[in-house]
Amino acid sequence: MLIDAHFRDPILQTVQDPFLEARGLTLKVLRLDLVHPLVSGNKWYKLKHNLAKAHALGHDTLLSYGGAYSNHLVALAAAAKLSGLRSIGVVRGELVQPLNQALAFMQAQGMVLHPVSRADYRHKDEPGFKAELQAQYGRAFDIPEGGANRLGLLGTAQISAFLEFSPSATANYVMLACGTAATMAGILSSMQGAAQVLGVSVLKGEDRLSAQVQDWLLEQGQTQPCAWQMLCDYHCGGYAKSTPALRQRMQSFMQNSGIPLEPVYTAKLIYAFYSLAEQGYFPHASEIIAIHTGGLLAN
Ligand SMILES: *Cc1c(COP(=O)(O)O)cnc(C)c1O
């Protein structure tokens, strides 16, 4: 069953904040976290065309990959259940009992959890690994980790339609947190009009995401994207790591705006935004749309 009718379009919510007002900045949050209570955020957009393809090919089982806190597997488990499909989650690392909230949710949605060691997980994209899974579970529609494939990009490309700036803004920015950067690449592939897109990498170390975005844009035939940049200084120690400054920003933003954040992605986005604003990065009368990519359920 196709489930698109269960989803609503995201809203743009303006954040009232004296600090921003004093600098002449407008911050709006695109609430992808509200598109569905269980299949929320950017993960729905990455999944929707994958689900349609699985449906068109007559599959009854979805299979994908992720860590023990994977927002992608959480969304996939719920979307599969809504669609009447079976789902298998290949989970990196052993299943520690009692299961954490994310894994318990996946299981409650009917997902079969298939744990593999970290060493084996590295081989997950190899034919031998996939053949073993098929021998155990039968034919399944295989979706890569994070939903980061061409069909995923087709879905995230739709997000740009919701990015509406006020005509009075002097400069427009879009900011979002990036893990695989498939969401950012999808948005860049379809952005109309003048805005700068700033990705906030949640990963530590060398910037591999910029090259990844470039590859995807070429693959999509997008040779003249709007200005974009991957910011690599706001990972706060690395994936799922945290600092007191990050936690403080997350708390004060949630309290002031009433918008819930999670520490792995969206808190780092907001942290990066305020850090840039404090440094005077945005010209007076700029409008910034921060994309809330969801992820609240697993946290
Ligand atoms: C997965 C996820 C991201 C990262 O999306 P990519 O397309 O992999 O860059 C960002 N925010 C949240 C809440 C996520 O769950």
Summarize the structure.
With 299 residues, the chain is an alpha/beta fold.
CATH topology of the largest domain: Rossmann fold
Ligands bound here?
pyridoxal-5'-phosphate
Low-confidence stretches: none
**What characterizes the major β-sheet?**
6 strands, mixed
What fraction of residues sit in β-strands? Answer: 15-25%
Second CATH tier, the architecture of the largest domain: 3-Layer(aba) Sandwich
Question: Topology, please?
Answer:
Blueprint: E1 12-15, H1 18-22, E2 26-31, H2 42-56, E3 61-66, H3 71-83, E4 86-92, H4 101-108, E5 112-116, H5 118-121, H6 127-137, E6 141-142, H7 150-156, E7 171-178, H8 182-190, E8 196-201, H9 209-219, E9 228-231, H10 244-257, H11 266-278, E10 286-292
Parallel strand pairs: 2-10, 3-4, 3-6, 4-5, 7-8, 7-10, 8-9
Antiparallel strand pairs: 1-2
Helix pairs in contact: 2-3, 2-7, 3-4, 7-8, 8-9, 10-11
The structure holds pyridoxal-5'-phosphate.
The site of pyridoxal-5'-phosphate (PLP) has 19 residues, from helix 2, helix 3, strand 7 and helix 8.
Notes on the structure:
With 299 residues, the chain is α/β, with parallel strands linked by helices. It folds into 2 domains: 4-38 and 151-292, Rossmann fold; 42-149, Rossmann fold (3-Layer(aba) Sandwich). It has 11 helices and 10 strands. It has helices at residues 18-22, 42-56, 71-83, 101-108, 118-121, 127-137, 150-156, 182-190, 209-219, 244-257, 266-278; strands at 12-15, 26-31, 61-66, 86-92, 112-116, 141-142, 171-178, 196-201, 228-231, 286-292. The strands form 2 sheets. The protein has a 6-stranded mixed β-sheet, with helices on both faces. Strands 5-4-3-6 form a 4-stranded parallel β-sheet. Helix 2 (42-56) packs across helix 3 (71-83), helix 3 (71-83) packs parallel to helix 4 and helix 10 (244-257) packs across helix 11 (266-278). The radius of gyration is 19 Å and the shape is globular. 44% of the residues are buried. The mean pLDDT is 96. The chain binds pyridoxal-5'-phosphate. The site of pyridoxal-5'-phosphate has 19 residues, from helix 2, helix 3, strand 7 and helix 8. Pyridoxal-5'-phosphate is lined by residues 41-43, 71-72, 146, 148, 177-183, 265-266, 293-295.
